[in-house]
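thought: user wants a sequence for this fold. calling inverse folding tool.
action: design(structure=
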């Protein structure tokens, strides 16, 4: 039963890696964000194909949990880091978007004021 789960997790991690590379190639995913996905895919692939890997045994010894649970825990940890990173990026972009909207509104107000001053009500320039 364990070998079937290892194969399924290994295939899914390879699919994740292929999709990530394809999105990078098509420029739909920036490299700075893809690094976390690539690292997660590689880590899950290594842990699924080589369960005796030093790091997985390290987690088993420390936590005392079964191998499959350790792989799930490690994958969850990496995904949690990715979600946290994207939350920080989204927060930063939200602030930048707010600043840009405020600047746009001020520029639009100034433009309307300049147009009102420079053009009389009949529409001909001064």
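)
observation: tool returned 126 residues.
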């Amino acid at each position: 039963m364990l070998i079937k789960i290892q194969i399924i997790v290994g295939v899914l991690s390879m699919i994740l890696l292929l999709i990530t590379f394809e999105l990078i190639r098509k420029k739909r995913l920036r490299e700075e964000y893809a690094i976390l996905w690539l690292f997660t895919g590689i880590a899950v692939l290594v842990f699924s194909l080589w369960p005796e890997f030093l790091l997985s045994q390290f987690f088993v010894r420390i936590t005392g949990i079964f191998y499959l649970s350790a792989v799930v825990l490690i994958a969850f940890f990496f995904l949690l880091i990715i979600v946290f990173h994207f939350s920080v990026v989204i927060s930063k972009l939200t602030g930048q978007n707010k600043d840009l909207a405020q600047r746009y509104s001020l520029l639009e107000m100034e433009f309307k004021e300049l147009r009102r001053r420079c053009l009389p009500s009949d529409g001909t320039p001064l």
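thought: summarizing for user.
answer: Here is the designed sequence. Helices lie at 2-25, 31-49, 54-63, 67-118.
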